[in-house]
From TrEMBL:
The active site is at S209, D235, H366. Pfam families: Abhydrolase_6. Belongs to the AB hydrolase superfamily. It catalyses: [phosphatase 2A protein]-C-terminal L-leucine methyl ester + H2O = [phosphatase 2A protein]-C-terminal L-leucine + methanol + H(+). Residues 103-378 form the AB hydrolase-1 domain. It comes from Penicillium capsulatum. This is Protein phosphatase methylesterase 1. It is an enzyme of class 3 (hydrolase).
Length: 429
């Protein structure tokens, strides 16, 4: 009997133990967690779909273009008649205020004035009184060249209109260094006339790639006179540029020639890391492409505004002698590169002699002002401040100090004579 009771007690103890842990470890008959794997699986699917939707929204947003009005105050169209052609220069402008400087930007080959959009915005955040002028060069953006006898349907042609009209009129493209430099100086003076400035503000020239060669040429020729404070060249030096020209055609042959949409064109620039900043790509890429009205490939109607292959005859003309001109031109000098390996021998010697300021952004690609707009803007503003003559307080000249001392001494002697005359008798001694 005692054995039975002991057995019953043991069984009771076991039953009690099982009942107390039943909420944690279900019995096979309860199936408390039978639905859990299904619920977890469904939850994972929901999370995945939501993340995918958010990713798609993010990708769509990163591929949506933004307009120039987000970065500049106004745009100008400046017409000009030359020998056989009529040009409508297109300019993005934010005028300077008070005595602020004017940063004049020139883009590289195949790009546009909007290549400096995000950088211009950052400059204004750091130095609100500064102005920014950024042009579309010939054959780029919305600048249009047509024969003299031909009329434009619009005084403010779009990118598509500019490209279509130029293609149909078959105007010979002149992108020589002399021509592009002349255009830049002309646009600066015409902007002054349009804005009613009595004189030009202090100017800092900034050029990227081909634009670096153009602004250096302008600085070397001294066409802006004392109004040119300084100039900055972005990611181009003569040696590496000449070397790169050897592989340029191969690069152009591997680049897509058409896109199904503008968004896909923006996406290609960011995914290929041609432009590493999505905001910059959204701002600048729409001016690099246009939609054909009668595309040869209906599924890919978006094509490049500028035919870079057609610019080949000018490639060497752009860069030969660039390093020497950069070092010899008057004014403050800044060279901003994406890597020190781009320095050639002449510039290395100049750097060791302290002839210019060198800044390197190793995290940026070729489009340094688009990849790193905030850092580029800070460097440019600091560069301007170092060269700002109005901020200098010069000591007086030695000759002026000596003349002032002599005048003070003479004035003191004259006062002493007057006092003696007043104290002495009128008939003297």
């Amino acid at each position: 009997m005692s054995n039975l009771e002991e057995t019953q007690d043991e069984d009771g103890s076991s039953a009690s133990s099982l009942s107390s842990t039943g909420t944690l470890v279900p019995s096979p008959t309860r199936h408390l967690f039978a639905r859990t794997p299904r619920l977890v699986f469904l939850l994972i699917i929901v999370i995945y779909l939501l993340s995918r939707c958010n990713g798609q929204k993010s990708n769509e947003q990163s591929s949506q273009s933004v307009t120039w009005t987000d970065f500049f105050a106004q745009e100008l169209f400046v017409a000009e008649d030359l020998d056989q052609v009529h040009i409508v220069h297109h300019i993005y402008l934010t005028p300077p205020t008070e005595s602020g400087p004017l940063f004049v930007m020139h883009h590289g080959a195949g790009s546009s004035g909007l290549s400096f959009a995000t950088c211009a915005d950052e400059i204004r955040k750091i130095l609100p009184k500064a102005g920014v002028l950024s042009i579309d060069a010939r054959g780029h953006g919305r600048t249009t060249i047509i024969p003299k006898m031909q009329d434009l349907e619009s005084d403010s042609p779009s990118t598509a209109t500019a490209a279509t009209v130029e293609e149909e009129s078959q105007v010979q493209l002149d992108l020589s260094l002399d021509t592009l430099s002349r255009d830049l100086v002309y646009v600066i003076h015409q902007t002054q006339a349009r804005m009613g400035w009595a004189s030009l503000p202090d100017i800092v020239l900034v050029g990227h790639s081909l634009g670096g060669a153009v602004i250096t040429h302008v600085a070397k020729n001294g066409e802006l006179g004392p109004k040119l404070l300084a100039y900055a060249v972005l990611d181009v030096v003569e040696g590496s540029a000449m070397d790169a020209l050897q592989s340029m055609e191969k690069y152009l042959s591997t680049r897509p020639t058409r896109f199904p949409s503008l968004a896909s064109g923006i996406e290609w620039h960011t995914r290929s890391r041609t432009i590493r900043n999505s905001t910059s790509a959204r701002a600048s890429v729409p001016s690099l492409l246009y939609e054909e009205s009668k595309p040869s490939n209906a599924s890919r109607p978006w094509v490049w505004r500028t035919n870079l292959s057609a610019t080949k005859p000018f490639w060497e003309n752009w860069f030969i002698g660039l390093s020497r001109k950069f070092l010899d031109a008057r004014g403050g000098k800044l060279l901003l590169l994406a890597g020190t390996d781009r320095l050639d021998k002449e510039l290395m010697i100049g750097q060791m002699q302290g002839k210019y300021q060198l800044q390197v952004f190793p995290e940026a690609g070729h489009f340094v002002q688009e990849d790193q707009p905030a850092k580029t803007a800070q460097v440019l503003v600091d560069f301007y401040r170092r060269n700002d003559r109005s901020a200098l307080v010069l000591p007086p000249k030695v000759a002026d100090m000596q003349a002032a001392a002599a005048m003070n001494k003479g004035s003191g002697a004259s006062d002493m004579n007057k006092q003696l005359k007043q104290t002495l008798p009128s008939d003297g001694l």
